[in-house]
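FAQ

Q: What does a record look like?
A: Structure on top, sequence underneath. For example:
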C-alpha cells in the first residue's frame, strides 16, 4: 500500500480519505519512508507522511503559550523533555500510550545537535516519526518537538566563529522547516571565565544567544512563536549562581528586544549520561535542588520565564524526580536512562547486543581514552550504536521489541507521575493553539497523484 491510497490533494492541502486504513498502515509507511535509499525521495515520503499525520490531528506546536503561563504562576508540574535515540517509532508509541492513559499533554520530544549525527536522524525524519507514533496511538492535539543543545562548539568557534555560527543557523533553519517549534540554544560553551566581571564572562554567551534568537524570529512561520531556551552553565561544569543568571538575562534583553527566551538551562551538579565508574556503574550524584529553586523563582518573578531547566537527569535515582516540581523546575531533560533500558533489557538477544558492541568497538574504538576501562568506554559510547545499525534495530522481531517497550512504558509512567504531568491536556490545550503550517513541495505532491 502507498500513502496515496489513503490521501488526496485538495489545492495545497492533504486530506485523509481513509482514516482507519491510514492508521493501520502507519507501521509500514513509516518504515518505508525512514529507510528509503534515495535521499530526495526519502524527503518527499517523510514530508507527505508528516502532512498526513497533521491532517489526522497530531500537530507540531510551540510550547511558548504554556511557558508564558508558567512565567506568571507555576502550575505544579515539570515538563519532561525526552531524547529518543533508538527504536524511535516504537519508543514514541510507548510514550503516547502512557500519555493517553494519564491524560498527559505537557511533554516534549527532542533531539540534540550531536544526536542528529550519531543516531542518523535528521530533523525531518525525527519529527515525522514522532507524529506517526502519535497518530498510531490515537493521540491528537499539539505535539512539542524540540531541538536540544543546538550548541556552538567552542573549539570550532575559536577557529572560525562565522562558520560555526553559520552552521548552527543552518541547523536551526532545517529544524524549523521540519517543524521543530521549540529550540534550545546552547552558547554556554563560550563563557569566558578569564574576564573580570560576570557580565563580561557571560557576554559571548548572551550575545550569540541573542543573535541566534533573532535568526529564529526572522524565519519562524506566520502564526508560530518558537519557544527558545537559553543556558548559562555548561552541563558538567560548576554550578550556576544568581549573579550569572541575572547577568545573562539582563545582557540578553539589552541585545534583543523582541520575544526572547522562555526558559533557562542551569548547572546544578549533573552531567550528561551520568558519571561512569571503572566497572561501568554510575556514581551517585547530588543535585543542588536549592539552586534550582532559587534560580527558577528569580527567572520567573523577575524576568517572566517559565523557570529553569535540568539537564542530565534520566540516570538519577527515582526518588529525585519528586523534587523537580517541588522546586518549581519548569523542564527536565531525559535521555540516557531510556537508552540503558533498551541495551540492558533481558529481552534484547545476547547475540544482538554482542554484535552491536562489536560494531561500536570497530567504528569508535579510537575514542577510548587510556584511563577508560572497557566498561566505561562502552557505557559512554554505546549511544552511538543506534545510528550505525539503525535498520537492524528496527528489524528486531516484535516478540523482542514489545517487551522492551513494556519496560520503557513503566519508566515513562513513573517519570510522568513524579513530574506531575498527568491531567495536563486541559491546561496544554488552553494555553497552546497550534497553527497548521502547510509544507507540501511539488515533489511531495507528486506522490499523491
Amino acid at each position: 500500500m502507498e500513502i496515496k491510497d489513503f490521501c488526496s490533494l485538495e489545492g495545497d492541502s492533504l486530506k485523509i480519505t481513509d482514516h482507519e486504513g491510514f492508521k493501520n498502515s502507519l507501521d509500514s509507511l513509516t518504515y518505508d519512508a525512514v529507510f528509503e535509499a534515495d535521499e530526495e525521495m526519502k524527503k518527499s515520503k517523510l514530508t507527505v507522511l508528516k502532512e498526513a499525520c497533521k491532517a489526522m490531528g497530531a500537530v507540531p506546536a510551540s510550547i511558548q503559550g504554556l511557558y508564558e503561563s508558567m512565567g506568571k504562576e507555576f502550575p505544579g508540574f515539570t515538563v519532561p523533555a525526552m531524547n529518543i535515540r533508538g527504536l524511535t517509532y516504537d519508543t514514541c508509541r510507548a510514550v503516547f500510550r502512557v500519555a493517553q492513559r494519564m491524560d498527559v499533554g505537557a511533554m516534549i520530544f527532542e533531539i540534540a545537535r550531536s544526536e542528529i549525527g550519531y543516531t542518523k536522524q535528521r530533523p525531518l525524519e525525527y519529527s515525522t516519526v514522532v507524529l506517526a507514533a502519535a497518530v498510531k496511538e490515537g493521540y491528537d492535539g499539539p505535539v512539542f518537538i524540540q531541538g536540544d543543545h543546538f550548541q556552538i562548539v567552542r573549539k570550532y568557534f575559536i577557529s572560525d566563529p562565522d562558520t560555526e555560527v553559520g552552521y548552527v543557523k543552518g541547523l536551526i533553519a532545517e529544524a524549523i522547516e521540519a517543524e521543530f517549534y521549540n529550540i534550545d540554544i546552547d552558547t554556554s560553551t563560550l563563557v569566558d571565565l578569564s574576564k573580570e566581571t560576570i557580565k563580561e564572562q557571560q557576554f559571548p554567551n548572551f550575545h550569540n544567544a541573542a543573535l541566534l534568537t533573532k535568526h529564529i524570529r526572522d524565519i519562524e512561520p506566520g502564526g508560530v512563536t518558537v519557544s527558545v531556551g537559553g543556558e548559562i552553565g555548561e552541563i558538567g561544569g560548576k554550578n550556576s549562581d544568581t549573579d550569572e543568571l541575572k547577568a545573562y538575562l539582563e545582557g540578553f534583553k539589552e541585545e534583543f528586544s523582541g520575544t526572547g527566551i522562555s526558559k533557562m538551562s542551569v548547572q546544578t551538579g549533573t552531567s550528561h549520561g551520568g558519571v561512569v565508574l571503572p566497572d561501568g556503574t554510575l556514581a551517585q550524584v547530588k543535585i543542588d535542588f536549592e539552586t534550582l529553586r532559587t534560580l527558577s523563582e528569580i527567572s520567573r518573578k523577575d524576568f517572566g520565564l517559565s523557570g529553569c531547566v535540568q539537564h542530565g537527569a534520566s540516570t538519577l535515582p527515582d526518588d529525585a524526580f519528586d523534587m523537580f516540581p517541588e522546586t518549581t523546575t519548569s523542564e527536565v531533560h531525559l535521555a540516557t536512562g531510556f537508552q540503558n533500558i533498551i541495551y540492558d533489557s533481558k529481552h534484547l538477544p545476547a547475540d544482538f547486543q554482542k554484535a552491536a558492541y562489536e560494531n561500536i568497538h570497530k567504528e569508535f574504538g579510537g575514542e577510548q581514552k587510556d584511563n577508560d576501562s572497557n566498561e566505561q568506554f562502552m557505557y559512554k559510547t554505546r549511544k552511538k550504536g543506534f545510528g550505525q545499525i539503525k535498520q537492524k534495530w528496527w528489524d528486531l522481531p516484535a516478540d523482542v521489541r514489545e517487551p522492551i517497550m513494556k519496560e520503557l512504558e513503566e519508566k515513562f509512567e513513573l517519570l510522568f507521575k513524579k513530574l506531575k504531568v498527568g491531567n495536563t491536556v486541559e491546561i496544554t490545550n488552553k494555553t497552546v493553539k497550534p497553527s497548521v503550517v502547510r509544507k507540501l513541495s511539488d515533489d511531495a505532491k507528486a506522490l499523491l497523484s
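Q: Is there anything notable about this one?
A: The CA atoms of residues 246 and 302 lie 9 Å apart.
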